[in-house]
Amino acid sequence: MIPSAIKELDSALNKVRSEMINQMNKAGAKIGGGETKVLTTEARLASTAKKTIASKGHKPAPLSHYIHKEGWPDLRAYKKDGPLGEKIFPDIHSFSIKVPIQPKLLKAGSKVPLFRVVERVNPSKSGGYWAEKMSENGKAWRLDCAVKGAWSTNGAYVVLDHVPTIAEMRKLGIRVSDDWDGLRVWRGKIAEQLDNESSLEKGHQATNLLLPGGDIQIFINFRDPHNLPVKEYIDKILKEKPTNWNDSKIPTQSETMVEYLEKRERSAKIVQQGQVLRGISSTTRAGVEYQQNKQTEKR
Fold it and tell me: What is the superkingdom listed in this entry's lineage (predicted)?
């Protein structure tokens, strides 16, 4: 028979557990196999959109994070004035502060491959930003590559499956030096962005949604003379393929935004609830063991 002290402890812990589950129910958590009423409101989700998707810590890299390598395109070359008169270095700030920005040589003839998502109309095939893998869907591309809605609507992509050789480029009439050794690129992780720009041309209204970034980014400065032959090669050879994504557009209507964000919010609560219940279970076991030890000592 369980001693009365243990019964009291067990009863108290059950009350705590019930209250915690009740609070989670009110917050929209999922308990067991059933789904409870979600009391989050459109107003709260819309006003805190940038907080709903948590930052992964991929803040834009400052100038001090960049260490230049001789012979590589200088990421400090492109700069502009910020709102307070400070200097902004967009190529550097596009990288995350969490990992180093590394110079890489992609040798002529080497298999890469590199992927770039472009728009169906006027695709910029030889733009600077590339990925080592293709995003699995439009939402992953939008969030993990931190692509603002005003920047791109996607629709297509191109693949550079290998770095062209001197012979390949010369066959296409592209001028390239005899000592050309390959693409000189910069590699790192993508910095987070706030979707705070609107574009009438692209039909996008700013949402202030945080795009957390974090995927690997390959930046190729095609303004640099060393990389220019490959830009010409890409424009002549690479053909766009459709992405067939229907989930890359960031919602702008409040009800659609709620639906877009609730799945992420609910998933986080389920994980949190599981951690709490495991903690309660551990506390209950510890309490029972403590009372049993006390009874043994009395005997």
Answer: Bacteria
Residue 18 has phi, psi (to 5 degrees) of -60, -40
16 contacts: CB under 8 Å, gap ≥ 6: 280
Q: Could you tell me which residues come within 8 angstroms of residue 204 by beta carbon, excluding any fewer than 6 positions away? A: 149, 150, 153, 197, 198, 249, 250, 252
Task: Name the nearest CA neighbour of 220 among 86, 100, 75.
Answer: 75
Distance CA 242, CA 256 (A): 25
Burial of residue 289, with CB atoms counted within 10 A of its CB: 0-12 exposed, 13-18 middle, 19 or more buried:
exposed
Per-domain residue ranges of the chain: 4-39+254-298, 56-242
Per-residue exposure over 198-207, b if at least 16 CB sit within 10 Å of its own CB, e if not: beeeeebebb
What is the Cα–Cα distance from 190 to 101, expressed in whole angstroms? 10
Q: What is the mean pLDDT of the chain?
A: 80
Q: Which amino acid is at 2?
A: I
Both tokens of 178, joined, read 């005899």
pLDDT band at 32 (very low <50, low <70, confident <90, very high): very low
Query: Where are the extended beta strands (E) located within the chain?
Result: 30-31, 34-35, 80-81, 87-88, 102-107, 111-119, 129-130, 155-162, 182-189, 193-194, 210-211, 216-219, 241-242
d(CA 3, CA 6): 5
- How far apart are alpha carbons 230 and 166 in whole angstroms? 10
Residue-level pLDDT at 242: 97
Residue 5 CA, distance from chain mean position:
51
| pTM of the complete model | 0.70
Say if residues 209 and 215 touch (Cβ distance below 8 Å): no
DSSP strand pairing (80-81 vs 87-88): antiparallel
For residue 119, give the nearest of 88, 81, 150 by alpha carbon.
150
SS3 of 130-159: EECCCCCCHHHHHHHCCCCCCCCCCEEEEE
* Tokens (6 digits) for 261: 């964000």
